[in-house]
């Protein structure tokens, strides 16, 4: 892995050394020159020390092919530097200028129905277009060479949210690239026919040229073809990232390169577990998903980002001070949420807190999207909260460079299972992979347990309990690792539809859950999915929805933790636990929701000897996330409720809180929608 950790020496040589990076996307090209002076003045006032610049400026820096205008960008770079603000400089390739699409309409993506995605929005380029790639890399080189020695430059920001709008392209370029991707994956057509099981429905290929992306078809396209197409799309964008990165590295080997991931808002298309090793530091954009689970989802996503970063510090590249503009209804944040959300990211390892964007646009599609400096100007609650957050982040300088302390419990997150489990032609279309993973995560927080979210390639033996919700795709290697984990004393919990297929989406034969059947000591002959409004009762008081299984116990000593009381499988096991080696493997055959999952977890955690670090009265109301360095621990206590929570029982010295308390100074209360950070010796 080429990962160069993002750390305290990030700002070496600048006056911001050792500070949490604080800032935003900055789009000065949308404003007249006089506004820039006010921008830097207010940035200084707010404690902003970094901006991402030039993300959508291709049309300005290259107004005609090969003709460049950097005068304005030079001036902005200089102005920022004079004010002590570092620059994460974009390669400006996110959105091609009109002249490029007019000259080369063959760069435009095509959807699965064959419709062209025209210019007028943004990101209208095919990830596999050789023409786009050539123009983009040429621009990247010009920019890199121009700013290589600029003192404001601290990092490169490749493109922007790669795949946000253009991940699935079904064009001729995509077809060509898909074929060559398949050739290098499978070598021979014979092997591809075997893996895609093309004897089904007369799909056997006799020539590579016959193969297409899964375009709109009469009915379900071949599932392995669909799964491979997803892998290919993720790889194509990753390849684009690498191409830009390599140009940058050749010009400025010492400047770290990143691109902003989208864990989780729009992240299904990109297998970030596979991308994380390609960036010099992980960065992420996160937008709150409004609703009752918003905070848990935020924490889950930040936790997964920390997992992708291997527990090391990462960069929050974008989030929102208030409303976004792209949901059907866009509500502002409530008082306190701006600071709270920022500190939740810091808790999970973010050493940077940045927003989209610095100054709210006056025109364009994002004019109703919040920003650090709103339309109403500096005399606003938002700007006051922004300034306050700048102060809070300065107080948190001690945590910079510290890593996330490893939890004893982890939830596995697997893009391949997400992709394959939610394909069409499955036992149910109602399965929502992320929702299931989030349920287990919330249940653990309810129990007051510190939990990591990790991709499947992380060594499992670091954990005592691993929850693997809907781990649908289990290749041999993963199956072996899970077996070893349990044999060596780990406690595994998995759910319905897990272990079912191999990496080619071929079913493991002999009964479900296939690859995990023997480990779990159970056998399932057929699945029993439930209709949307249907539910079943379990004899432990839980309610199951979505799915049920007819379980046969095959292992020795399999313990039935709960049985179905109602439904087609009444009287049969619903939740089982199989002691194996010095560990155990448990199976949950229905969707339990947060409350039901909590009940199962209580038993499993108890047997594993995992207890909450939080005093009883805080469990559920407060989430604990821990960072640490060689000498100290930093306890981030996140209030999950809408009321103040008394902190009395927790030892440690308060070093920061997400908002200064109205009572002034440190108090023993975590305010509603607040986070308190305590320092303790390690
Ligand atoms: C992100 C994007 C930004 C901005 C933001 C608005 O997806 O990177 O450029 O559009 O969303 O929420």
TrEMBL record:
Q: What GO biological process term is on the record, naming one?
A: carbohydrate metabolic process
Gene Ontology terms, cellular component aspect?
beta-galactosidase complex
Report the catalytic activity. Hydrolysis of terminal non-reducing beta-D-galactose residues in beta-D-galactosides
Keyword Hydrolase attributed = yes
Active-site residues, Swiss-Prot/TrEMBL: 161, 318
Record's keyword annotation contains Hydrolase: yes
This protein's species is Actinopolyspora righensis
The EC number(s) given in the record are: 3.2.1.23
Keyword terms: Glycosidase, Hydrolase
Task: Give the enzyme class.
Answer: hydrolase
Q: Quick one: which residues bind substrate?
A: 122, 160, 326
Ranges of residues in domain Glycoside hydrolase family 42 N-terminal: 25-394
Q: Which residues form the Beta-galactosidase trimerisation domain?
A: 407-610
Family per similarity comment = Belongs to the glycosyl hydrolase 42 family.
Name of this chain's protein:
Beta-galactosidase
Annotated GO MF terms: beta-galactosidase activity
